[in-house]
């Protein structure tokens, strides 16, 4: 049997074990655990096990700083391209699959990386995984106008007008109709978008593939690498400004991530920055938004005013500052028009009322006359009952008159008889004639 000392030792050991277990539980509660969504993001990142893919382009344009001021909430941006995979976790809510105007029935999803650059929302706890775009609070409308290649002019025309009618304030023509000559219908659609208050952004093209970036009313975007030098596919002219366009990590259709580049990816950065400006200053017109984007640029690798750079490299915070200067003093709406009483539509002049009244009176008189004549007319010359009765009475009276004339006495007879006349129907001798 154990003595008192043995029991005391065992008690102390049990107490120590309980204290160690409690400490382990406390440590487990205090150390944050990776959420399942973040673990899925790490698996999706495709190498390196990082929760968020490296996004040098977002840092280059100052996207996080600009989004802290306004994340683009309340602005609808339309992406006209090869369609978007809405099931990707980085897109989340705020995405709408619009109508498709592509001639074929190819699988959609080619524009998914551009959608992530514009309005990626990330995923996981506190958005620690995935891609966060330039304007993560914006609403995205996907309009499919192509099936993996260039868009037909008819599809682009219809897609632009559809996006504008749906309320899009910024349009990105990621899949343009590359041609040496502009299409009249597409040019008219861009004019319709500008007049409706929508800014159109398009990739800049080379030579015979200059459109849609070369259309009047479209902001043409070139591309630069991490060293801010022009990429090989970025043209040396016809560019309004440039943005990151090489090694851009972005969501991929079907899940996971991919690396994209080119002027289309650069145009997506500019479209996202345009959304931020529109959300911060909705009273600005499309041309004023474009001016703020170009005025708020910085120098590229070749220095200021270098060929192919346009105004310079996109700088989202500087663009918002320029927009604030342009919007200073401009109300969100015209207060004078809002306070002005509503005017009633002017009525017709007095002479017109008098003329109409006279014409109505004349027409009414003509109608009465026609009805009266119609009521008294006998177009078929049919005998009426009244006329028959009158003719019958007239014949009887004629016979009576003739009989009376026959029964009259010769002239002077009345005088000889003392002025008396024989009753009608009787002979002078008193005998009745048969």
Sequence-ordered SSE layout with sheet pairings:
Elements: H1 4-30, H2 36-44, H3 56-60, H4 63-69, E1 76-81, E2 95-100, H5 112-119, E3 121-123, E4 129-132, E5 139-144, H6 153-165, E6 170-173, H7 184-195, E7 199-203, E8 218-224, E9 241-244, E10 248-251, E11 257-260, H8 263-280, H9 286-295, H10 316-327, H11 335-339, H12 350-376, H13 385-407, H14 413-416
Parallel strand pairs: 1-5, 1-6, 2-5, 6-7, 7-8, 8-9
Antiparallel strand pairs: 3-4, 10-11
Top keywords for this entry?
about 425 residues, alpha/beta, Rossmann fold, seven-stranded parallel β-sheet, two-stranded antiparallel sheet, 14 helices, 11 strands, about 40% helix, elongated, disordered N terminus, S8 family serine peptidase, signal, protease, Peptidase_S8_subtilisin-like
Share of residues in helices: 40-55%
Distance between the termini: 181 Å
Name the CATH superfamily assignment of the domain at 38-327. Answer: Peptidase S8/S53 domain
- Briefly, what CATH class of the domain at 38-327? Alpha Beta
Quickly give the CATH architecture of the domain at 38-327. Answer: 3-Layer(aba) Sandwich
Biggest beta sheet summary: 7 strands, parallel
CATH topology of the domain at 38-327: Rossmann fold
Backbone shape: elongated
Mean pLDDT: 78
Number of helices: 14
Which ranges are low-confidence, i.e. pLDDT below 50, for 5 or more consecutive residues? 1-49, 412-419, 425-434
How is the largest sheet built, in terms of strand order? 2-5-1-6-7-8-9
Strand content: 5-15%
Please identify the structural class as seen in this structure.
alpha/beta
Rg calc: 49 Å
In total, the number of strands is 11
Keywords: Hydrolase, Membrane, Protease, Serine protease, Signal, Transmembrane, Transmembrane helix
Biased composition (Basic residues): 423-434
Pfam family, one: Peptidase_S8
Domain Peptidase S8/S53: 72-311
């Amino acid at each position: 049997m154990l003595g008192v000392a043995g029991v005391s030792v065992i008690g102390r050991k049990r107490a120590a074990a309980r204290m160690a277990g409690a400490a382990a539980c406390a440590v487990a509660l205090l150390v944050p655990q990776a959420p399942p969504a973040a673990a899925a993001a790490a698996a999706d990142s495709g190498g390196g096990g990082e929760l968020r893919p490296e996004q040098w382009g977002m840092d280059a344009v100052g996207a996080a700083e600009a989004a802290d001021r306004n994340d683009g909430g309340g602005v609808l941006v339309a992406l006209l391209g090869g369609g978007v995979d809405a099931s990707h976790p980085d897109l989340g809510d705020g995405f709408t699959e619009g109508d498709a105007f592509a001639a074929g029935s190819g699988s959609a999803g080619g524009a998914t990386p551009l959608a992530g650059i514009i309005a990626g929302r990330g995923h996981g706890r506190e958005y620690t995984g995935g891609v966060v775009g330039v304007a993560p609070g914006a609403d995205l409308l996907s309009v499919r106008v192509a099936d993996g290649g260039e868009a037909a002019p008819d599809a682009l025309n219809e897609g632009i007008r559809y996006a504008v009618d749906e309320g899009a304030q910024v349009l990105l023509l990621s899949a343009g109709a590359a041609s040496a000559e502009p299409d009249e219908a597409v040019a008219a659609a861009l004019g319709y978008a500008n007049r409706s208050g929508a800014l159109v952004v398009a990739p800049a093209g080379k030579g015979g593939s200059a459109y849609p970036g070369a259309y009047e009313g479209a902001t043409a975007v070139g591309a630069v690498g991490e060293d801010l030098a022009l990429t090989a596919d970025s043209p040396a002219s016809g560019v309004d400004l440039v943005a990151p366009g090489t090694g851009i990590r972005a969501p991929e259709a079907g899940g996971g991530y991919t690396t994209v580049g080119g002027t289309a990816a650069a145009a997506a950065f500019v479209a996202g920055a345009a959304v931020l400006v529109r959300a911060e200053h909705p009273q600005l017109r499309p041309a004023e938004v474009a001016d703020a984007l170009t005025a708020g640029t910085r120098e590229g690798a070749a220095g200021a005013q270098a060929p192919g750079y346009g105004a310079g490299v996109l700088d989202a915070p500087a663009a918002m500052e320029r927009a604030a200067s342009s919007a200073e003093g401009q109300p969100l709406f015209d207060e004078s028009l809002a306070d002005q009483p509503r005017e009633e539509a002017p009525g017709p002049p007095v002479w017109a009322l008098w003329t109409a009244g006279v014409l109505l009176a004349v027409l009414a008189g003509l109608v009465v006359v026609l009805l009266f004549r119609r009521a008294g007319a006998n177009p078929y010359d049919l005998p009426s009952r009244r006329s028959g009765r009158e003719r019958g009475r007239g014949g009887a009276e004629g016979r009576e008159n003739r009989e009376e004339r026959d029964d009259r006495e010769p002239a002077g007879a009345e005088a000889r008889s003392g002025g008396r006349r024989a009753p009608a129907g009787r002979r002078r001798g008193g005998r009745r004639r048969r």
